[in-house]
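DM from R.C. (forwarded with permission)

"hey, sorry to bug you on a friday — could you get me a structure for this? deadline for the figure draft is monday and I only need the backbone to look sensible"
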Amino acid sequence: MSAKYLNRIPVLALAVLLASTILSAQQPYKVVDKWKIGGDGGWDYLLADPSAHRLYITHGARVEVLDTTTGKPVGAITGLHGTHGIALDTAGKYGFISDGGGNAVVVFDRNTFATVATVPTGGQNPDGIVFEPATQTVWAFEGRSKDAAVIGVDPASGIPAWKVLANIPLPGKPEFPAVDGNGSVFDNIEDKSLIVRLDAHTLKLIDTWEAGCNSPSGLAFDVSGHRLFPVCDGNKMAVVDSSSGHVLATPSIGSGPDAAGWSDANKLAFASSGDGILSVIDASTPDYKTIESLTTAPRARTMAYDSGSDRIYLVTADFGPAPAPTTDNPRPRPPSIPGSFTVIVVGR
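My reply, with the result:
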């Protein structure tokens, strides 16, 4: 063997290693597990807590809490009226639930899952909810009253006093929010196809932008890259510059989306849709290609991304036949079959 050939071995080995790393990062996602939770009632948003290995799931009049290492229930927050979303503080002490049926935000202890406080929001049907770290406030976006209820918290106090600091009027029906950690709060305005930016320090609406697609619902956020990812009707996700509001792209996704996710490590955006498709968009290049359309299950339209395990959690159930249309309900939904509520685990 010549010396020239021998000198090439380290270079070849490095090339093989790099190629293997790239392929590993780009390998497709797949359904790796299913956790049957059971119970009755509808559902809305999920939230993963990577550091605690927990998954919070709104489910009718309760919030289920699962251990993501085993898929087993570890607790529940009960006695609610119609849950929509969950937010967590930065201190690891408290969680917050938008109890739409009760027109309130429910505060719970993250260690015991006991309800600590119930805060009437002053509006109607709190839905999307987020914790804003710079001001240590909770933002609940209310669909029927079309406002944002801002709740002040004091995590350092032994008995925190939560109260509504403001109800900020919005230009339409709000959906899912996102924060940058420095005081900017973003939210989709579904019925006007807009994105709004609010200032958590002044409690004012400061920007209103076109969403770039119709009826935006779920919203993911690449904070370091200054990019918002609203998911919309018409099989579209928009990519919006969070500094200027400029629409950068509109990649294709599944039909009937309701949630979105972002992987900062992999530079991937996700959209979960009612047609049972999980769309994966490569946001590492300017063309924003949809690199995977994974079949999950019908009506698995809400999701949570777990950055600690690079897994996506979705929920759905089995359904019976839809009832006959009526004048009041021309497009009735099929009822879910009791006991069939299931978490779909996607990984690679």
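R.C.: lifesaver. The CA atoms of residues 106 and 118 lie 5 Å apart.
me: no worries. Helices lie at 3-26.
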